[in-house]
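Okay, any thoughts on this one?
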Amino acid sequence: MPELAVYQSLWATEQRIPGIEEAPIEARFEQVKAAGFDGMAVDLGALDLATAKTTVPYFARYGLGGLLTAFPKSIEDLRPALHLAKEIGAPFVVVVGQVMPLSLDGMIPVIREWLAVAAQEGVPIQFETHRNCITNDLFTALQLLDAIPEMRMAADLSHYVVDREMPYPIPAELQVQVGRILARSDSFQGRIATRQQVQVPIGFPQHGKWLDVFLAWWRDGFARWKARAGADDRLIFLCELGPRDYAITDGDGKELSDRAQEALMLKHYAREIWASL
């Protein structure tokens, strides 16, 4: 039977409180395991490759699955990330591509070249729906999907809610377009956005309607994935609630909510959706 695995992001365990040193990376692996997550994702946008390599032994030590997010600034820049992915047992690499041609005709060869590098290394890649990268814009991403049938996505729809400043309720046309992204997505990331803010506190009542939007999208995406999955396939849902400046802060620079607790809420929601399918 296909199964769901819920991961936490190493980046999301950072506190970034001025004057206070971060907890050691190994201690954060231990905390993530104790919190009941199935794996840990390493984000090469938040730490350099050399530091990322120090995490390799922790995956086996704490029994956590591995995942990697890469931010390649050239075609060949992806290759070292693919090598590290093999070391941590990541089933694929999420790509936030930093080569950003202005035209669609310029983008298509870049995507194809990254796919070719991934095929050479034997590591699948998924392109994240992310701002400030080659898939920055929802409309352009849809055109890329039309042009490149083998292109697969990692859906972090918070970026596109802000990118398109989606109104609430979501118009029918936009729902159809999001559905096209979900149909090509092989993993999902947990963050709740509004049309103005990419990451809002989950438990605040004024954000409840947006939480419902994302829960419905995840349910749709999970169902589409499960319908095409093989018996031994594993769907990864990554909780990725980023530290400041993703996390909203008050006038004293303190975060408005407890991200660790919110990650547990997201884990619960994901597993609840999966069980309902």
